[in-house]
Write a structure and sequence with these properties.
By secondary structure, the chain is an alpha/beta fold. The protein has 17 helices and 18 strands. Helix 1 packs across helix 4 and helix 10 runs parallel beside helix 12.
Length: about 450
């Protein structure tokens, strides 16, 4: 090669950093720019992981090592589609890897879903974790009963945040504006509702156990929901984690209430069919389900025609994330991902490969797995990228010097935040946190973030 391979990675979350790590591990002559719309890196590690799960957030230390490599640059506060378009990316880079995650959510598709008080768990998480655009998303929490639709880890996170006392949350990095609202929370009952049975729930054993350890809330499970059909029993017999989870749930069902301030109810085999209310949520109607295995082996939830109405004031849907279409990039709207073949972007599903475009993470495969799952996923993508460029002679091009894109953005008036500048903001937040015996106090105003980073 007569010059370094220039690669842009769009998105500075886990998938983006794993992709960068894969490139610098396998190529000496490479130059990588991680381009991020926010002034801060780390994506879901900062804005998705629950504030009371600090240990998981320590994975960012690995990303710091990647960012410290001289072949890697962070260009934060640069929005793809606004500050940089695809033609400009193609001018300055040989290849681009999209790692923008799945920032939208799936709807329930039922009557009343758009009533005030019916929101996505995605937005609720963004609010309490400090995503700048969501700092004013909730200005009071006067609901007494909340229905959380879904039984994955995000649903459990939301339940915990609603159930915990402010004193418990005040030792985390939850945002100050959220603490102020949660301090006056009227929530008494939280219903976590799954359409299938306990053997099909998507939470991890660790997350389920945390619900049983809540200091501020009693937990309720109906024994009848734990009676398994034949197909579910086989899953439980064959899968140790599910067997352990069933034992945990059985123990919860046997517990006597202790009169704690809040109550968490875990309900299975129920699907929301309607949200009732005149101008805001007043109740949710659930249809009782039964399970029926399909020929493929998937166990479907089938409505029985029996209904139950829960009086609730708030509904949080947590039934799955989906990706968002990027300007000028192909998109599979049905699956909510960029269509691809092992990370090589396709014009459409099963279509031709788009030269120089790649994808990794949730925008590649959909919202599955944990943070670390993105590493193996990125490895496959980067392997294919390197293979595609292995026999190409890269001719000199002044536009593909690392300094060229920085000057280009500067000329457009974009305030690029480098990794070194982000570290100033990081150190500021940690210092503010130490004053309150907290991991950090997040800055949630974009202008203030940039001002601190540039100080």
């Amino acid at each position: 090669m007569s010059r370094n391979l220039r690669v842009a990675i769009i998105g500075a979350g886990p998938a983006g950093f794993y992709a960068a790590a894969g490139l610098i591990k396998n190529l000496e002559n490479v130059s990588v720019d991680i381009i991020e719309a926010l002034p801060t890196p780390y994506g879901l590690v900062r804005y998705g992981i629950a504030p009371d799960h600090q240990k998981i957030k320590s994975v960012s230390k690995l990303y710091e090592r990647t960012a410290a490599d001289p072949r890697v640059n962070l260009l934060a506060n640069v929005h793809f589609g606004r500050d940089l378009n695809l033609a400009e990316i193609n001018k300055h880079y040989d290849a681009v890897v999209f790692t923008t995650g799945a920032s939208s959510d799936r709807s329930l598709g039922i009557k009343g879903e758009n009533l005030a008080g019916s929101i996505s768990a995605t937005d609720f998480v963004a609010w309490y974790n400090g995503l700048p655009a969501y700092k004013d998303f909730i200005n009071k929490l006067d609901a007494k009963a909340v229905a959380v639709i879904g039984v994955g880890n995000v649903a459990v996170d939301v339940v915990r945040i609603l159930a915990k006392s402010v004193d418990e949350l005040a030792t985390t990095d939850i945002t100050d504006h959220s603490l102020d609202i949660l301090k006056d929370s009227k929530v008494k009952d939280i219903y976590m509702i799954g359409r299938r049975g306990p053997a099909q729930a998507k939470y991890t054993t660790k997350e389920l156990r945390e619900l049983g350890e809540l200091i501020n809330a009693d937990i309720f499970v109906d024994k009848k929901d734990l009676v398994l059909d034949e197909a579910s029993q086989k899953i439980a017999n064959d899968t140790r984690a599910i067997s352990i989870q069933l034992t945990e749930l059985d123990n919860y069902a046997d517990r006597k209430p202790e009169g704690k301030a809040r109550r968490v109810h875990i309900k299975f085999l129920a699907s929301p069919s309607e949200i009732k209310g005149s101008d805001k949520v007043e109740a949710i109607v659930l249809e009782k389900n039964k399970l029926e295995p399909s020929p493929s082996g998937y166990i479907n939830a089938v409505g029985t025609g029996q209904f139950e109405t829960l009086p609730v004031d708030m509904v949080l849907r947590s039934v799955g994330y989906r990706g968002v279409k990027l300007p000028d990039i192909s998109f599979d709207d049905k699956r909510g991902i960029i269509p691809n073949d092992d990370g090589r972007v396709l014009i459409e599903a099963n279509g031709e490969i788009v030269k120089g475009q790649y994808v990794a993470g949730w925008i590649k495969r959909g919202p599955s797995g944990v943070v670390g799952t993105n590493k193996a996923d990125a490895v496959i993508t980067i392997k294919n990228l390197i293979e595609d460029f292995s026999n190409i002679d890269l001719t000199p091009d002044s536009n593909k010097n690392p300094e060229a894109i920085v000057q280009f953005l500067k000329d457009k008036g974009v305030e690029v935040v480098s990794f070194e500048e982000w570290k100033k903001l990081d150190e500021y937040e940690i210092a503010q946190g130490k004053k309150q015996a907290r991991p950090r106090v997040k800055v949630v105003d974009t202008d203030k973030m940039i001002k601190i980073a540039k100080s």
